Recover the amino acids of this structure.
């Protein structure tokens, strides 16, 4: 019966342990309890894959899953494409359900089939969450608790795992795809999913209540600056300024807090890099999605079991300089690699970019200075600041507001130095004016009236002078009519 679609089960499947398990005992208990859950979904608006399932459901699923593993030939299954493998598993599970005479509604049976297919081929209970494009973050706090972020707000879901072992196996499956591991010897790991979504795993004994998995999802449709304008993250004039900044090879630091949209904004800026330029990206977990044809993607590597073989971000940035780059893009600057990035920006690699965590442009400059100092460089503060002024042209500040919306709050130029103080000037600012009856923040982007930015000559060199002037003029008109 199990071999009807191929050699995935033995011809004597009825005599296997899976068939022996089809005794009256498991039939009598699942039947009355398995019919109870359908009463709740009629009032539950949560998607089917996210409803909290009963303990009995997991007992039935565990029994059927064990029978499936005993029956199926995994080596043959691995030779099939994903869709064929899913169909084969569904056929065998249907046969096992029939043998065990488990009483289930059609919707429950479909849900069980999907769950088991996801366990074997995908990421188990995470699959329905990963399939939703409106979810920004998935946070799994042990086997029984899963939160998601939708529209900037945290929500608890009914998703749960069979136990911490199943959750740990899924974590292992994710990190092994990029050649990493997570176990007691190495309980912290950064990785990524095939679509570029960022993954962090921290396992026991460091995570007391079971493995903790955090996924920062990437949208399937990559955001663009025009879309950010539609969402109100930036004004049309501000978007034009950012586009020109990307085109004319300004050195840019994108600054912001956690979850403020730094990587998304960096992706938007890189869309305006010329297709003829050689770009090299350096990241801890590769998540940037550049569209140019000439891109080299580099990723750090953690140490092996013997504590050797580690490749740090600084190693990657230093090696970039030997690879004939035209632009270097660092996914996140968080350590002494800040010094090497500034060196690159100041030695012929104009248009380099990076992100860092800071709450304002002024704080971003202070953080770069602190990171260089912590790297062991015994340089005077003035020397570091002079290097900053010579290297960084623009700081773009992103923020996540209390209503969950993301806004670009500053476009700030690094102008020069007065004494020992770095001088900056804001081109655009975001002002909060209040909130509406739904709690959504009302604000506006305004120009500060800077007639000629510091990168004006650079814009003229790239024939962007007229567009820059037009954007600044239009922004000044909006400034005179603040509620337009």
């Amino acid at each position: 019966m199990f071999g009807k679609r191929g050699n995935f089960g033995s011809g004597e499947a009825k005599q296997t342990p899976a068939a022996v398990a089809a005794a009256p005992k498991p039939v009598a208990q699942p039947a009355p309890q398995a019919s109870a859950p359908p009463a709740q979904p009629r009032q539950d608006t949560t998607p089917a894959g996210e409803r909290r399932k009963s303990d009995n459901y997991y007992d039935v699923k565990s029994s059927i899953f064990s029978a499936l593993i005993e029956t199926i030939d995994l080596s043959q299954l691995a030779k099939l494409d994903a869709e064929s493998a899913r169909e084969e598993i569904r056929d065998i599970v249907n046969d096992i359900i029939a043998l065990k005479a488990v009483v289930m509604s059609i919707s429950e049976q479909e849900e069980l089939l999907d769950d088991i297919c996801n366990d074997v081929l995908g990421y188990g209970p995470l699959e329905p969450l990963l399939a939703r494009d409106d979810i920004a973050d998935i946070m799994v706090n042990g086997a029984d608790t899963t939160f998601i972020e939708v529209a900037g707000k945290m929500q608890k879901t009914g998703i749960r795992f069979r136990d911490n072992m199943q959750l740990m196996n899924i974590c292992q499956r994710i990190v092994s795809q990029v050649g990493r591991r997570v176990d007691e010897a190495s309980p912290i790991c950064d990785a990524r999913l095939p679509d570029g979504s960022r993954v962090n795993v921290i396992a026991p004994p460091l995570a007391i209540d079971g493995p903790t998995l955090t996924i920062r999802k990437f949208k399937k449709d990559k955001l663009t600056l025009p879309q950010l304008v539609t969402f109100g993250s930036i004004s049309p004039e501000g978007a034009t300024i950012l586009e020109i900044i990307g085109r004319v090879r300004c050195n840019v630091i994108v600054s912001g807090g956690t979850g403020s949209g730094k990587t998304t904004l960096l992706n938007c800026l890189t869309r305006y890099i010329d297709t003829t330029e050689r770009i090299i990206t350096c990241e801890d977990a590769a998540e940037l999605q550049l569209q140019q044809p000439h891109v080299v993607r580099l990723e750090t590597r953690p140490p092996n079991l013997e504590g050797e073989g580690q490749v740090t971000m600084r190693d990657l940035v230093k090696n970039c300089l030997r690879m004939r780059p035209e632009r270097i893009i660092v996914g996140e600057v968080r350590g002494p690699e800040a010094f090497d990035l500034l060196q690159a920006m100041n030695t012929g690699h104009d248009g380099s970019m990076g992100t860092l965590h800071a709450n304002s442009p002024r704080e971003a400059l202070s953080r770069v200075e602190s990171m260089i100092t912590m790297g062991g460089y015994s340089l005077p503060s003035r020397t570091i600041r002079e290097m900053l002024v010579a290297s960084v042209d623009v700081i773009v500040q992103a923020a996540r507001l209390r209503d969950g919306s993301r806004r670009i709050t500053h476009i700030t130029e690094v102008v020069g130095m007065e004494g020992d103080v770095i001088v900056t000037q804001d081109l655009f600012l975001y002002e909060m004016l209040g909130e509406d009856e739904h709690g959504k923040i009302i604000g506006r982007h305004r120009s500060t009236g800077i007639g000629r930015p510091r990168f004006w000559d650079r814009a003229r060199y790239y024939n962007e002078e007229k567009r820059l002037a037009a954007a600044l003029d239009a922004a000044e008109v909006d400034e005179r009519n603040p509620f337009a």
